[in-house]
Amino acid sequence: MENLDQIYMWIVNNGVRFLGAIVFLIVGLWLSGFFVKQFVKIMTKREIDPGLVSFAKSLINIALKVLVVVSVMGMVGIEMTSFIAILGAAGLAVGLAFQGTLSNFAGGVMILIFKPYKVGEFIEAQGYMGVVAEIQIFNTVLKTVDNKMVIIPNSGLATGSLINYTRQDTRRVDWTFGVAYGTDYKMVKEIILDILKADKRILEDPALFIGLGEMADSSINITTRAWVKTEDYWDVKFDVNEKIYATFNDKKIEIPFPQMDVHIKKD
Known about the structure:
The protein is of the alpha+beta class. The protein has seven helices and eight strands; from the N terminus they run H-H-H-H-E-E-E-E-H-E-E-H-E-E-H. Strands 4-3-2-1-5 form a five-stranded antiparallel β-sheet. A hairpin with a 2-residue loop joins strand 1 and strand 2 (about 130-135).
């Protein structure tokens, strides 16, 4: 009976505190999520860089949840001084064990400061190409052209080479058109020039370039270069390819296959 009385008294003395801690935990986690959502809404309305918003969202979300958990531990009577000391020692051990994760965090900070790319830009890095969907505290999320989501650690993106296809307003489109030996080069050059000048998406400055790039094994290759707005790059490249092919067919201009001459000698 004495043990039961002690258990009863412990429940009476500590039950309210534990119940309050549970309620605080539930409400605290809900409020932290609510605060993060409101933060994102405010930053979005103010047209803050989406990359900075997503990074700050992840960071604030983690910090608030840790704060709630630490507060609940204090409410249930856990000695916070000892806990902080233990947490510090554990943090050092975890930091050594997760150096890669910390370098990804540092990489995310460097990306947000120097902005080699932003959300919505098309980049190529670490063997992948895609539109930047999110910049998180540890990773960057790319959406590829075939609608795949690729998650790349920030450390490699911050320290490695990458190509940003969107940052510049204009891009150069390069073509190489091969025609058979014996074809009238000047005529072919005029055909290409007329097709390019007829396309209003091609810029006048810098000027077009058409030149005899190479006398290859099976063809003479005509190098062609034109400048367009970045958003028109792929449409212009494919459209010009189609027009050149159709025109070459109409004008009976031969596009040769790779070939080899074999000479047989009879003794």
